[in-house]
Design a protein that fits this description.
Elements (H helix, E strand, L loop, with lengths): L4 H10 L5 H11 L7 H10 L23 H18 L2 H12 L22 E5 L21 H22 L7 E6 L21 H19 L5 E6 L19 H12 L6 E5 L4 E6 L2 E6 L11 H16 L6
Parallel strand pairs: 1-2, 2-3, 3-4
Antiparallel strand pairs: 5-6
Amino acid sequence: MHWDEEKIRLLRKLAPVMTDREVAEEFKKRYPGERISLKTIEHKRQVIGIRKRGGYPAEDLTDYTEEALSNTELLKLNRSLQRQLEKEKSRTDLILDVVRASIQKLPPVTPPKIKTSKKFDDEETGLALSDCQIGMWTDETDTSGFSSYSFRAFEKRLKVLAQGIKKIYDIHSQAYNIPRLNIFGLGDYVHGEDVFPGNKLYIDHVLVDQIFLGALRIAEFILSLAAFFPRVRAILCYGNHGRLGRLGQHHPRSNADYILARVVQILLQNQSNVEVIVSESPLCLVEVQNHLFLLAHGDQIRSYLKLPFYGLDTAARRWMSLVGQRVDY
């Protein structure tokens, strides 16, 4: 069948209130000379992005007009859309509604005073925070004695990181002002539970504890940095380990990383010199001193010839084409 604008408009009108089979029957009545099947309707509906909302009995649409559907059909469409909205509302939002009302904000620390100008131009600091894998547990025997990991190890490493940042700040701030720390959160803050078969054998905290205990430790970490940086900006993206279900079978923001980031945002609301930005999509653009940074976890990148470079180069070009801007970093 040849699809023209009139047929597409008709499909857009009928699909929300009728099943694909009923739509196909209606098309056969209106276009008796066309070859129309259930597969034809189903395929076109999916191609142009119309969700299947059928289930209502077919109505007599002989008086159909382009301007409006009948009142009865509009009511059906409204009810259908309302049910779909309720069904599609992310589990993430439901969790955060409870968290927002009950969680206690961390008490603020005293922000440092902005220093006077120095000999050299101001510079900003960037910290990449990624793959904390909170909740992951490995024993030294699993790594031939090389290393081990646990929630306690995560806490210790976070303290070492904070001490290192403070030392670097103390050294560089003697030469120039550092008005802001940018934390580039790149995802996989939690290790998750079901991201791969057997994953539950390698955790020491269930997912709920990974989210809330992890969020508290990360918020405390950011708070400690806010004590000596005039401003702290944390841009938090989500990764793949926090997925709350199989890929493609849930809302993208139904992700434990996203929930953790939002909890961090809530915990730090009282800190005047801290800004927490939670990315609503897998890609995030941020500007630092007139340079554009693109943040992404990168789990979509695939290696070629066992080398990551070609996959990174391809992904970078694709992402820049997607955002329509030249990205510096």
